[in-house]
Amino acid sequence: MAVADLQSAVAQTATAESSETQTGPDGGYPAPQTLIGQAIQASMSPDVPSGLERYYGERAYAPIWFDESGLRENAHLAIAAMAEANDHALNPSNYGPIRLVQLSETAQTPEEWAQFDLELSLQFLRYATHLSSGRVQPNKINKALNLFPNRPAPEMLFENAELSTDFSAFLEALAPRSDNYARLKRRLAQYRTKAGEGGFTTVPDGEVLKPDMTDPRIAVLRERLIEEDIPGAADHTGEIYDGTLVEAVKLFQEYHGLETDGVIGKNTLARLNMPIEEKLIQMELNMERRRWMRDNLGDFYVFVNLADQNLKVVRDGKTIHTTRVVVGKPYHATPVFSDQMEYVEINPYWNVPYSIATKEYLPKLKNNPSALSSQNIRVFQDGNEIAATRIAWNSYSGKNFPFRLRQDPGKSNALGRIKFMFPNEFNIYIHDTPSKSLFARSERAFSHGCIRASDPFALADVLLEHLSPAPGQWEQMRDSGDRKVIKPKVPIEVHLTYLTAWMNKDGSTHFRKDIYERDKVLLKALRTAMTENL
């Protein structure tokens, strides 16, 4: 449409009969002053979010994206950003950038220009929502994901957009502003380039390859590791599996959560031959997960990645402590949520969860009423202790079990000698354990849901340093045998997360097995959302 025609369309005033104040959902709005304003008002429907309708109403339904001079620069930039949404693992076709361009080029009547303006507003709101807080709402696709990201309020979004002096910077700021998100986005682009160049070389099957063996696959193995930018691989020469190539394989194993022994067996070979397309999907899924997370996780926090089965403590943006953890079995999958640590308990009691008491311990008590005495587990009813041998256990089941089982503090206590409490509806916490052997395994999903830390007193030293800078004090309390409760004097946030792909500051790219099949669930939800254009 010619600029002169657009100037005429924008300038056309509304008819006299519609010049009075109109009534909106929250009261009176100024009357539309042009025919385009009238057309925008007439286009409002129940499908238009109330916040967006209010924003239009308060501006007398004046167009947002163009004026008498033509499309505003913001319109061009917004459409271009939506066309490049794939950079953020979003689907550009969900926002219709091509259709928006066509509408802007063919619009002539006030109604057609109104259609363009409102459609661009709706698509921009959708794009901004997806980019800032996720394509899907986590708790709706999986009740174990107790995350509720803040979705942008339409009125504030559009007001900030119009007031922005640098709209390009405003668009960039819609995405998560964490380094973790930016790094993964950058790595996704690099892997897409690798995929376009043919992906990764397949390492042929063969006998288990151990250090110092000679094997004709060495050259292929070296090439495969170089393709994924594993340090040291390019420095190796010859057909003996040794030196820098072994170290490169160990790094590859570390990056994939495998046993770092340098031995290329079934699991390592399977990861080497994992199609690059699967890694691309993992990165895309985890960019969605990053959009669910806050940009700022706190000044001092505990971060547990359940898929990685590791815990780290971060203070002022720097990791100051890491430790291995055991997480819930797939059948007892640990949920995702954030909370705040309230206290640390040394020499704790273990109040046996009802499900464990009825499903695991009740059958033992039916066979032998003294079965739990060797574990120092006592029986209580209505606050009073009862001798286990005086109870007719065969009269009870999971439906009428009136007892509470409690294990005394001590070396055999299921919680070990210390627990870190952030009370929550899931009854999840971090604790010690008398069973230390599981920490040596590469996969550590063995608990009933709580998180076991491999060196919990070192963790206590870090978290409670502000109370006692001298290491060892908490072990002394442990050895006294007395039960102690310590409350931190500074805020300590706790974030239980589930990430199966990420990129570290050192450039290493990590992938983890989907132990709870949450990637599978998320992929299905994203594909449905993209197909149905939700």
User: What is the averaged pLDDT score?
Assistant: 93
Structural class: alpha+beta
Radius of gyration: 30 Å
Strand content: 15-25%
Low-pLDDT stretches are: 16-26
- Summed up, the helix count is 18
Largest sheet: 11 strands, mixed
* Total beta-strand segments: 21
Shape: globular
Question: Between the first and last Cα atoms, what is the distance in angstroms?
Answer: 32 Å
Q: Please estimate the helix content.
A: 25-40%
Walk me through the structure.
By secondary structure, the chain is of the alpha+beta class. 38% of the residues lie in helices and 15% in strands. The longest helix has 24 residues, at 110-133. Residues 16-26 have low confidence and may be disordered.
